[in-house]
């Protein structure tokens, strides 16, 4: 097979699986969708896309890319070995990784780093100057160093690791060794420094490499980079204990998520201007979770990421229709939904401790990548290994050098991630649990782990002190009804619910009759209904509905004349604009809901009715529309679809005819070379309607998204958009 001569030829030689892998590694290349390989190359070689791709490299891949930026174009693996001092297989693996990301093309004996990638490392990659026009030999350097003496060492040490330049007056003057008076003049005289311009000197690349080689065989930095990630070690904990702790945490978070979403169902919270939930509302919700505000914020974020809560009007937060389905799932599936939503969310949940849960401030596109990176590093230690969180920073910095350059921020993110993973049960007692691999590998919870999730119960123990005890997680419908009829006082495996006049009245307000409440309690009580609870239900039933409120704007029907007189005499009557229009009938200019709330504040127990005199029950709960993130398999399918579309479109494009002695080359690199040589090229073009054409052009410049040149036939100045170019033929056209 003929080796590729350009990046475009290299990409055109890829099969669909390899092209899919490119779009998976560099997802930004799929947006906008490239119409052919030429356009894909244009997108892949922009400085923005190259920057994103390089930031995704690990430390070893980045070192190899930096080494290629130091070397001249067309370097070999052996050249790289001279810079990094590592075995050939380690270098070959990194080279292949760079090829898969379209940062590099060519054979191992002719490596070409994409120009934009070379530019990314700046003028002095690894702190080294470009190769000298007339480099000194190692022997000449050693002789010059010996002759210059130790007095020049401080200057050399300052320039050794970059930047390799310094400011000196009249740097370009000729200096003889005998006339040198300062260390810089000595170095210039011995050619260990050379003038870059009138006021700047530079350390030649060969001099810096010779000096670096005296201390290490790794020449790209003061600290060698390992081809493999650092290992995380720690003592082994009891896997049985770890499994039990992780199962307890997983069950707890499922129960707590249901609890706070049910609270939002009963008391919808208003959103702030930044789309977040106010600190006061979060604190109110957290009372059901022992006042843990940070944990409550995390649960709200996780529920939102899982599509269980949302806002139908951007004003209030409500459960979604997806929540109603979620509560019917088995415990392992409910937990997995929360855990995978956390893994893939493009937000930092714990940062909302200082802002507001669900606010736009927490959006962070790199959050899912960083979260996976940290948890994969933890998983590498093995299940049951107790991990020192500080060790994760070193591993994470190797996998993501860009994050390692911000050590303080990295430590904060690792701290957040570890705490959240502990809440989810992915880690427990400082160790990795069996649940973590299931989340990282997109697998269902294994059967042996699923067995640690207890089966939901449909019965509670009702005691004579008006409490009900749940000895484990309850079925969703049972828990929902019990929270309607009683106030939940504690949570977890032994949740306690307390019946009170106010809680029982909620049942009546929702349309339940006394007999229905009693029947439901009999069905779901393992101990029957204690007498005190029966008395409570009957007492509330006798009082409920003695005052009925309707709209006219509002009216009140009161059976007791004394009660009517007391209401009219109360100061609230004036605010509500109450007046009597008939025996037992009052009207109000206030909204019926306002009248009901005011009467309840007076200690009364009114019931609402419609215009036919029928009691109104609670309306069906409002729900926000469901929203779920795309699963990983869908994202992979998207990469496959993009690859297939690009290949199919590229095959339909015509190829420029090859002339005698011409070489087919439609990459930007070759167009830049043509500009340097003022060569004539023939461009294969595609117009806005997909119609192909060709034209000749003597290239002058490539930039600003276009190829600029002169038509050799007419002398006309022409600019051709790069996006329209489907192919290039170099060399003068045949006669």
From TrEMBL:
<dbReference type="Pfam" id="PF13625">
    <property type="entry name" value="Helicase_C_3"/>
</dbReference>
<feature type="region of interest" description="Disordered">
    <location>
        <begin position="607"/>
        <end position="636"/>
    </location>
</feature>
<protein>
    <recommendedName>
        <fullName>Helicase XPB/Ssl2 N-terminal domain-containing protein</fullName>
    </recommendedName>
</protein>
<feature type="domain" description="Helicase XPB/Ssl2 N-terminal">
    <location>
        <begin position="460"/>
        <end position="582"/>
    </location>
</feature>
<feature type="compositionally biased region" description="Basic and acidic residues">
    <location>
        <begin position="627"/>
        <end position="636"/>
    </location>
</feature>
<dbReference type="InterPro" id="IPR032830">
    <property type="entry name" value="XPB/Ssl2_N"/>
</dbReference>
